Amino acid sequence: MRVFITGATGMVGEGVLLECLGHPTVERVMSVSRRSCGEKHPKLTECIIPDFLQLDAYLGQLNGYDACFYCAGVSSAGMNDADYPHVIYGTTLHFAQSLATLNPAMTFVYVSGSHTDSSERARLRMR
């Protein structure tokens, strides 16, 4: 199995990345992120994409995969109510649709660290 992981630089994505790298049926993992995850592993390649809404230059690297664990996200802290849905929903949907075009049989899993916060003081955004 060949998998994408987004958000491998975050708490949830890093956990998914480490599980995939250690799993015997996963032969290849591509971390798709805005910056390097910092991991080195024979199964791992990275594709650094500064803006997930601007994928055209990277499409050649994003085909031939079986699954995507979408762990990318941002904290709602300090974000205005108008921008939050665009960043969380709009960016995710655009990325998923782009991958589905290239990998029609791919499984897409949205992984959320619902209510996660390393400080354990986060407030729930109610929208």
Summarize the structure.
By secondary structure, the chain is α/β, with parallel strands linked by helices.
Describe, in plain words, how this protein is organized in 3D:
The protein has 127 residues and is an alpha/beta fold. It has helices spanning 11-22, 83-102; strands spanning 2-6, 28-33, 44-48, 67-70, 107-110. The protein has a 5-stranded parallel sheet with strand order 3-2-1-4-5, with helices on both faces.
State mean pLDDT (0 to 100 scale): 87
Termini gap: 36 Å
Biggest β-sheet: count, sense, barrel? 5 strands, parallel
Which term fits the overall shape? globular
Count helical runs: 2
Give the strand order, joined by hyphens, for the main sheet.
3-2-1-4-5
Helix content: 25-40%
Tell me the structural class. Answer: alpha/beta
Count of strand segments? 5
- Strand proportion: 15-25%
Uncertain parts:
none
**Helix/strand order, N-terminal first:** EHEEEHE
Tell me the radius of gyration.
15 Å
